[in-house]
Structure to design on (910 residues):
């Protein structure tokens, strides 16, 4: 009998609202603090950095569902719904009784889930008369998505790209330039934050934290300019729930409900996107025992080894203080190839959910991620992004556990993006040049000691 | 009012048969000839090179529709239907009254339409007990698709990759290797065909014709090994009609019928794929005035400037003699970045259709193609393959003509693949380093003079 492989929604079935999980949390995340006054952030405090609408959404703790503006929904329709795919090839290769599904966000025109928040963020700016936007990017997925979104709305965009990625991934830069963006390697001499760190360490390869500092600084010093962030924040997580809301309907079409929901974890946006809509059900129904697993790199394990603490989102300290699991905002992550996961902290909502035991973390070593990626490519055809490969590796672990124990579980993971721009990393893996990195307790403690203790 | 952007078929609506246009042609293509005897090719003559099923299909001139094997259809379901997209962004940017649609083959796991024939060709080999397969690739799209298809069926694959692409596009090589294929730069020392040409010209950058010779030679000298071709041949065109058969249903969903169908043109496979199912209707109904336009590079203009002649499909002369529009099988095309279009000849069916006035050709210069590509990327989000950019450029020409003349026409083009592995070409374009190449009459004549005159 023919088995359905892909579940796709028609345009009229696309979600009309995003899901705001904070409204459903009995214990809310503790508030972000103003970096100067150390008082809880108010909407106006965010206006110098973000668009008004993003600021408003950031602090919304009451509305469970928030309308997707019609214009944004129209843009979503160009690539959404993304397919939910039953990974028969992977199941067979692992010889597992588990049923494995993945949500394929790699088919967006920019190749990742990041477009889901880039479009509304650019739209808010356009609507509010903003003309210029700044941002940072690590591996380049976020920068690519925002470049295209800004091109759609005729906004000028400057992207600070982490220097090591800028050099390792020249084609990411070309893609952003093709969409019309200006791309600057970070740290750069164009900001005080950049100059300071170059002065201290001329060979510094950059980090997301530094690139964020530079982008915020440029935004606050440019007329009619706002900054835009691709992860960590509440409004970003909100936008990404379109992934899970679709997946919920698609799993229904497949006649199954996930026992596990798995996503890779950098700042938390693709995890939130796939997980929150299913967590919505768990929050209301205690009998649901769905596990939510964040797959993070062993070299940057904020969820499994970080501490819960107020910390900055950037290296210099321009952002609000966020209550987060963190390795410290000056933490310089190892040079792994999953650039999008090299970030020191987790967003406030996911940090709170981890604290409440609503989710768990799995730490994945670099080689385990690439092993899983190659297997996946051979049996499912898609070369996954090094970031997404962490989710695949965690899925493989769980599917093999099902085999050992002889139990049939249903696993859903998010394939956040493809790896076609990351082939230099695959080249190095195939040549046997890649290493595993893990963090020593000493290194960890050194970074923790630098944190100002507020909690 | 919300306008539908993408038209997608459900799995049960996917075509169950391919369309064999030859059965509908009143005047059939004249037969291919055996290179030794110069007699019309028989099925058995093809067996040393191709699988039995491919050989059988190659000569089928009677069955209008041919069942897609259930196992192949199951594999198609992982990525088909591909979306039909209304290009509102491009229409707006051009300010044209034309309605523009594109069939998005770039969302296949390997990034192009080539998988549509790679899967059945690998399937036939598997079914017939073949263990090893050889092929050639230019830009790498075909080699990538066959690598994945062979990985699906556990076949060993050796790919001869045109040397200039091998060097310019190292990541294409990595992708094929990720799927488990062996990749050799062509010309190589591993075959007589390769050694001969290296001896004559040690700096030869390779051509598809040479790579085909090497792949055929290896196949005929290896146990249990067949050769597989990604374009030109009748059975390849047949497989690709799945594109147009889907598009026909999807255009119906959109409530329109194309006045023009446009595709880029290397050997003819993506053109045949999108065009033949619509030509089916034209062949039966003279009142349909649909134009079918092959967009070829001005530097390799076999359709607009070639001669109709029996010629070999490869450089050495291992293939049957094919009745084709050709620039001569020893023609060395200019080093343009659309590697997939650098082929000297057109398949027998499309050549005959051109002779009968059923289709036309447009020649596109390299810079016009990249201009169109960048415009498309900015307004539709997808970075097109340099090959597909030729189809976009031809579409832009026609859409602007509609604007000039104030007429609303419906244009459908095939986006055969994305250009994410071709960013080095975009880099050079953005840096202003790319040139236009055109062929002089003298150069053309020199190649024609070398051809043995059989017609």
């Amino acid at each position: 009998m023919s088995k359905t492989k892909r579940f796709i929604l028609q345009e009229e079935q696309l979600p009309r609202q995003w899901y705001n999980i904070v409204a459903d949390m009995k214990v809310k995340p503790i508030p972000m603090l103003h970096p100067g006054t150390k008082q809880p952030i108010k909407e106006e405090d965010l206006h110098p950095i973000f668009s008004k609408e993003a600021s408003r959404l950031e602090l919304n703790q009451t509305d469970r569902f928030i309308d997707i503006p019609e214009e944004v929904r129209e843009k979503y329709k160009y690539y959404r719904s993304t397919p939910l795919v039953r990974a028969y090839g992977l199941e067979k290769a692992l010889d597992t009784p588990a049923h494995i599904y993945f949500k394929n966000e790699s088919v967006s025109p920019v190749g990742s889930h990041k477009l889901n928040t880039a479009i509304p963020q650019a739209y808010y700016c356009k609507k509010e008369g903003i003309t210029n936007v700044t941002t940072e990017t690590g591996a380049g997925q976020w920068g690519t998505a925002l470049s295209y979104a800004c091109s759609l709305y005729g906004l000028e965009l400057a992207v600070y790209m982490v220097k090591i990625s800028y050099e390792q991934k020249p084609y990411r830069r070309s893609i952003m330039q093709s969409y019309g963006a200006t791309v600057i390697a970070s740290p750069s001499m164009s900001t005080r934050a950049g100059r300071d760190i170059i002065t201290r360490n001329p060979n510094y390869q950059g980090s997301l934290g530094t690139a964020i500092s530079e982008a915020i600084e440029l935004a606050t010093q440019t007329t009619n300019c706002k900054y835009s962030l691709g992860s960590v924040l509440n409004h970003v997580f909100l936008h990404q729930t379109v992934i899970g809301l679709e997946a919920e309907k698609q799993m229904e079409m497949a006649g199954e409900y996930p026992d596990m929901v798995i996503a890779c974890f950098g700042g938390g946006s693709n995890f939130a996107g796939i997980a929150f809509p299913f967590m919505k059900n768990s929050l209301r129904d205690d009998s649901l025992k769905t596990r939510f697993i964040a797959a993070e790199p062993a070299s940057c394990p904020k969820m499994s080894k970080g501490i819960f603490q107020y910390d900055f989102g950037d290296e210099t300290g321009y952002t609000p203080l966020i209550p987060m699991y963190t390795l410290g905002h000056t933490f310089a992550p190892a040079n792994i190839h999953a650039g999008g996961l090299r970030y020191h902290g987790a967003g406030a909502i996911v940090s709170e959910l981890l604290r409440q035991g609503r989710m768990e973390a799995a730490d994945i070593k670099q080689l385990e991620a690439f092993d899983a990626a190659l297997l996946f490519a051979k049996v499912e055809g898609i070369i996954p992004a090094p970031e997404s490969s962490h989710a695949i590796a965690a899925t493989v672990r769980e599917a093999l556990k099902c085999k050992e124990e002889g139990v049939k579980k249903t696993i859903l993971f998010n394939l956040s993006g493809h790896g076609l721009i990351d082939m230099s990393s695959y080249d190095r893996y195939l040549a046997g040049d890649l290493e595993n990195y893990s963090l020593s307790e000493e290194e960890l403690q050194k970074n923790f000691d630098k944190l100002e203790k507020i909690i």
Q: What stands out?
A: The longest helix of chain B spans residues 234-254. The radius of gyration of chain B is 20 Å. Chain B touches chain A through 46 residues (CB under 8 Å). The mean pLDDT of chain B is 95.
